[in-house]
Specification:
- By secondary structure, this protein is an alpha+beta fold.
- The protein has a domain at 1-85 and 146-215 and 363-401: FAD/NAD(P)-binding domain.
- The protein has 11 helices and 20 strands.
- The strands form 3 sheets. Strands 5, 6, 7, 13, 14, 15, 16, 17 and 18 form a 9-stranded mixed sheet that branches. Strands 1, 2, 9, 10, 11, 12, 19 and 20 form an 8-stranded mixed sheet that branches. It has a 3-stranded antiparallel sheet with strand order 3-8-4.
- Helix 1 (13-24) packs across helix 11 (383-400) and helix 2 crosses helix 11.
Length: 401
């Protein structure tokens, strides 16, 4: 039996920053469990690598508050730790006249959130991003940046280890006894004072062991990317990040094109329901029990159409064909041609929470407390950007009881 004051489940960015915040405050001994042989293997390591500025989120939401603070803290962390974070900025464009009014709406929301943004005309847009086009106005967000998620994970792992956190890899949580404060993971048993659930795609399962999160379950969404062929004229003109304005008729943001810290220009991601928590391929990662429940939820959501879910599927399904993906990419880069896009091996999964009774997609971060435990549910974008601020919020919550 191994003993600790805090047992953190999940070695992605939320779990690592939580362990770091607890250890930095010297609140007690910390153990971090990760079921994979390395940290950040799933959602965190497959992140698009955008440090968000906080334009999109409802004012007074956790996302709006923590994204703004997290952006600043991640910049400070990058400067201190020495990993690359490129402040390239982002433009948000209206690809059609019908989308033009959304530029003003998004600008007003960004201002309410305290984000530094500027409305720009077509000439200024061309000066910033020569390949981008907009109908009327666009938004310039100078505080959006790009980074390599794996760099951040490596530095956080070194940090928590130096702070005395015991990291157990290849150690999957199997069972807990909340009353006794005991857990079985891998081949070990752990006695803990408080458990922090940062299990991402498996967070609802871990929460259920404590009787928490019963209103929700995870429905993963799969994100595929493509890369612009090196030397392509349209790719060479991409300097930073280009987004289209969100479509208010559908959940989630639209497509993006960005030049990452390694110089590659990436386009994507898609956003279509997956049928397994680790369903990165067509059949890989499918689980009979999970797949049935997820497929059933998707059918019911298509019928009920909560939050424009049906519109999302109709928008996203064609993007899984070469012609459909190209059409979407042309909203960002009008000159792009079919030979400019080449395969890219990154596939991400969004650990999206769904409310069981209404089948609505949950838009904000959810944190629930239970016996000897705190549970992070719906740690979706901008969770990576928000992570350092989120960790302080979690630690405050644990300390205050």
């Amino acid at each position: 039996m191994k003993t600790c004051d805090f047992l953190v489940v999940g070695g992605g960015v939320v779990g690592l920053t939580a362990a770091r915040a607890i250890a930095r405050r010297k609140l007690g001994t910390v153990v971090l469990l990760e079921k994979e042989p390395a940290l950040g293997v799933h959602t965190s390591g497959r992140n698009s690598g955008v440090l968000h500025a906080g334009l999109y989120y409802a004012p007074d939401s956790f996302k709006a508050k923590l994204c703004l603070a997290g952006n600043r803290m991640m910049r400070e962390y990058a400067a201190a730790a020495g990993f690359t974070l490129r402040s390239c900025g982002k433009v948000v464009v209206a690809p059609t006249p019908a989308a033009a009014p959304e530029v003003d709406r998004l600008y007003e929301r960004a201002v309410k959130n305290g984000v530094r943004v500027e409305l720009i005309d077509e000439k200024r847009l061309t000066d910033i991003e020569p390949e981008a086009r907009t109908c009327g106005k666009a938004i310039w967000s100078p505080d959006t940046a790009v980074f390599d998620p794996h760099d951040v994970i490596r530095h956080l792992e070194a940090d928590v280890t130096a702070l005395g956190v015991d990291v157990f890899k290849s150690t999957e949580l199997h069972a807990v006894d909340p009353g006794k404060g005991e857990a079985t993971a891998g081949s070990d048993r752990f006695a803990f004072g408080h458990l922090v659930n940062a299990a991402g795609l498996h967070a609802d399962r871990v929460a259920s062991l404590f009787g928490a999160g019963g209103r929700y379950r995870i429905l993963p969404f799969k994100g595929l990317y493509k890369k612009i062929r090196p030397g392509s004229a349209c790719g060479e003109g991409v300097r930073g990040i280009i987004y289209t304005v969100p479509d208010p008729r559908v959940p989630f943001l639209g497509a993006q094109a960005l030049r990452d810290v390694h110089g590659d220009v990436i386009v994507g991601p898609t956003a279509i329901p997956a049928f397994g928590r680790e369903n990165y391929g067509v059949f890989k990662g499918l689980d009979v029990r999970d797949s049935f429940v997820m497929a059933r939820d998707v059918v019911r959501m298509l019928a009920r159409n909560p939050d424009g879910f049906r519109n999302l599927v109709f928008r996203e399904a064609p993007r899984y064909t070469p012609g459909g993906f190209l059409k979407s990419a042309r909203e960002l880069l009008p000159r792009i041609g079919p030979r400019d896009l080449v395969p890219f091996d990154r596939v991400g999964l969004r650990a999206q929470l769904v409310e069981k009774s209404t089948l609505r997609l949950v838009n904000d971060f959810i944190v629930e407390s239970a016996e000897r435990s705190t549970h992070v549910l719906n740690a979706v974008s901008p969770a990576f950007t928000s992570s350092l601020a989120f960790a302080e919020h979690l630690t405050d919550r644990i300390v205050s009881g």
